[in-house]
Amino acid sequence: DQQVKQNSPSLSVQEGRISILNCDYTNSMFDYFLWYKKYPAEGPTFLISISSIKDKNEDGRFTVFLNKSAKHLSLHIVPSQPGDSAVYFCAAVRTGNQFYFGTGTSLTVIP
Amino acid sequence: KAGVTQTPRYLIKTRGQQVTLSCSPISGHRSVSWYQQTPGQGLQFLFEYFSETQRNKGNFPGRFSGRQFSNSRSEMNVSTLELGDSALYLCASSFGGTGVSETQYFGPGTRLLVL
Predict the structure, then answer these.
(1) Which tens digit of pLDDT belongs to each residue from B33-56?
(2) Containing H/E element for B98?
(3) Which among A43, A89, A96 has the least Cβ separation from residue B109?
């Protein structure tokens, strides 16, 4: 049972434009959400997180939006840079430290 | 401070053998979680250890087991290896406080190839 879903396996964006990565979840008990970035043959790197009591969190070029009523999470990258090309995983956490990950979206930023 | 470390980085085994992977968490972190990543499957949760006790468990067969030591270092063991066990095995650490959701930090992974 996939409780966290990333329905777009891949995304291509021109350098300088906005990248929007989406994530849907099914369990209303999740209270913390994160995005990780992963390069091939490396472990995921923490990017940004958001608590369920907020609807937006911003860190430089990265903004995460949370829509609890729709059970939807998105990551905006503005402006996109070639170095942002990687696989992005969203994760949702229930109290008790159990993490659920999506299957990832491969982002390609075209110079 | 030092990040999460995993050893070995690469491993080749044959079917039927067993393997032990090691993970050293960030200093001060008491929770260690293990994940399996295969192409198209994302990160599949194996189990989480906190204070030497398994606190959470995913849906993997009993061939997959783990343990945690008093210094929070963790090992994962896979017995009777199958071809389908070929994957990147990742461990992640966090402070692990109960009642609190927090960020996990990942190691570089161990790439296991079963022939």
Answers:
(1) 999 998 777 889 999 999 999 998
(2) none
(3) A43
Cβ contact (<8 Å) for B42 and A102?
A: yes
**Rounded-to-integer distance, Cα A90 and Cα B51, Å:** 27
User: What's the CA gap between B105 and B26, in Å, rounded?
Assistant: 8
pLDDT at residue A95 in the model: 72
Cα separations (Å) of A19 from A52, A82, A106, B69?
A: 23, 11, 11, 42
Task: Give kind and range of the element (H or E) at residue B64.
Answer: strand B64-68
Instruction: Determine the residue type at A1.
Output: D
φ, ψ dihedrals at A82, nearest 5°: -55, -35
Distance CA A26, CA A75 (A): 18
